[in-house]
Design a protein that fits this description.
The chain has helices at 53-72, 75-91, 93-104, 108-132, 164-177, 192-203, 220-226, 240-252, 275-283, 306-318, 338-353, 383-386, 402-410, 425-434, 467-474; strands at 9-12, 15-18, 21-23, 26-28, 32-37, 44-50, 138-140, 143-151, 154-158, 181-185, 211-213, 233-237, 257-260, 266-269, 298-302, 357-360, 373-376, 393-399, 417-421, 439-442, 461-462, 475-482. The protein is globular, with a radius of gyration of 24 Å. α3 crosses α4 (108-132) and α9 packs across α10 (306-318). By secondary structure, it is α/β, with parallel strands linked by helices. α8 links the parallel β12 and β13 (257-260). The strands form 6 sheets. It has a 7-stranded mixed sheet, sandwiched between helices. It is built from 15 helices and 22 strands.
Length: 491
């Protein structure tokens, strides 16, 4: 479809969304488009401008031109504008929630009450953290050391489809707070709230070119962005193969890159755990139709309680309501895309063919729904245990003691997170010390404080986000050492 003969606004449940790129403070068309579908019913939401190397280059040029002015903006003024962005998000929580639910299929009630308010919080947190940032000067043999965080330059941020705006703003907020300019490449399966956010940011007073959005389908726009020599930081959340490609492109320009690459996290349930709590934690892993990188998809249960745990889990999980994510009573919505549904079912059917047993689920539902599934009788070295499914599919294995539990928990190439259920504090301390993971939750799940570091080990990622760790990445740290003498008297 030719961009010059079509309107570039679509309407989603009464909310208007611009379908063109946002570059240099203006809406920019593309010669080509791609079709955006709703996972709720497969309906067409609209035709989205599809970026190429040309739009990528224009966005980097806009970000580069805007960088000196934004970098020189006093921290207090940057913080004020970021708080204004948060105000704008809060005014449009309902619009953002409605659009994202239609675009990625996650629960509307979650978007309204948790996800979109968290988007606003992300900006407020990093705006405030910016004003607290700084180390006291320290002395070296009478010389003063003064550390500063200098903005790095244009940053390319490539974000996933499972929580599009919230995960994007984990990156956008600290990058902007640090004084950088940003080019966001949203996921092709859920691009709409990035466009809405561009309007909000502009209305809040963010200068033209400081924040840019380039949409795209396939690899062209993203490849052009990460290989551009003027890009000084790259942050990516997604798959391991794509991260390797980005890393190679970044290496050519020595551009620092941060990667969050998903996982195959364990939930360890010991016999001394509160069993009802442990079951609740396990069932919670079906959140967002299992499309959560942190999800503890490998349930490891002490052998002596495995039968009772499985009984209680089956009872609770079977009561989950799967359906329209706009319905307040729905617990699990659809999966994002037919291709993803095919991938999920492929994992499950291969596991069943290899001897796994489905305690619940194990098959597709209607439309883009996959039934919540628990598989047992799975081998540790099997594909279903070792590879990320990214759907509502859990496995259950048993262990006999702490050593075996830790061995099974650590026996994948990933290391993003781990969850532990136990009533013994000493055991919790012993086990968590041995787990390979960027985050470990004990008797809880998905408690995320932006002050804390977030990221993964092994193939789950490189680098950390959160608090000062974010500023360490998005800045060039400078130490100025000053001698105590050598000053001329200008009096």
């Amino acid at each position: 479809m030719s961009a010059d003969v079509r309107a570039h606004t679509l309407t989603v449940a009464g909310v208007d969304v611009d379908t063109w790129h946002w570059i240099g403070g203006e809406r920019v068309a593309s010669a080509d488009t791609f079709t955006d579908h709703s996972p709720i019913d497969g309906s067409v939401l609209g035709e989205i401008a599809c970026g190429t190397a040309a739009e990528a280059s224009a966005a980097v040029a806009a970000a580069r031109a805007a960088f000196p002015g934004w970098a020189a903006t006093p921290p207090a003024e940057r913080a004020r504008i970021l708080h204004a962005v948060a105000d704008g998000v809060e005014k449009r929580i309902e619009d953002l929630a409605i659009v994202e639910t239609h675009d990625n299929g996650a629960l509307l009630r979650s978007h309204r009450r948790g996800v979109m308010p968290r988007v606003a919080h992300n900006f407020r947190f990093f705006a405030d953290w910016l004003l607290e940032l700084g180390h006291d000067d320290f002395d070296t043999r009478g010389h003063t050391n003064h550390v500063t965080w200098d903005p790095a330059g244009p940053c390319v941020l490539i974000t996933p489809w499972n929580a599009p705006l919230m995960l994007a703003t984990w990156k956008i907020a600290p990058a902007l707070a640090a004084g950088n300019t940003v080019i966001l490449k949203p996921a092709e399966w859920s691009p709409l709230t990035a466009s809405l956010f561009a309007d909000i940011a502009a209305e809040a007073g963010l200068p033209a070119g400081v924040f840019n959005v380039v949409q795209g389908y396939g690899a062209e726009a993203g490849s052009a962005l990460v290989s551009h020599p003027d890009v000084r930081r790259i942050s990516f959340t997604g798959s391991v193969p794509t991260a390797k490609t980005i890393a190679a492109a970044a290496a050519a320009n020595l551009a620092p890159a941060s990667f969050e690459l998903g996982g195959k996290s364990p939930l360890l349930v010991f016999a001394d755990a509160d069993l009802d709590l442990a079951v609740d934690l396990a069932v919670e892993q079906y959140d967002n139709a299992g499309q959560v990188c942190l999800a503890a998809t490998r349930i490891l249960v002490e052998e002596t309680i495995a039968e009772e745990f499985t009984r209680r889990f089956t009872e609770k999980a079977s009561a989950l309501r799967q359906g329209d994510p706009r319905d307040e009573a729905t617990d699990i919505g659809p999966n994002i895309h037919p291709r993803q549904l095919e991938k999920i079912d492929g994992f499950v059917q291969r596991a069943l063919s290899a001897g796994a047993r489905a305690v619940i689920g194990g098959h597709r539902g209607e439309g883009q729904f996959y039934t919540p599934t628990l598989l047992t009788d799975v081998a540790q070295d099997s594909e279903i245990v070792q590879e990320e499914v990214f759907g509502p599919v859990l496995t259950l294995q048993t262990f006999t003691d702490e050593d075996e539990a830790v061995r099974l928990a650590n026996d994948t190439r990933f290391g993003l997170a781990a969850t532990l259920a136990t009533g013994d504090k000493a055991r919790a301390d012993r086990v968590t010390a041995q787990l390979v993971a960027g985050t470990v939750w004990v008797n809880c799940f998905f408690v995320r404080d932006l002050q804390a570091p977030f990221g993964g080990s092994r193939h789950s990622g490189v680098g950390r986000e959160g608090g000062t760790w974010s500023f360490d990445f998005y800045c060039d740290l400078k130490n100025t050492v000053t001698a105590p003498k050598g000053w001329r008297d200008h009096g």
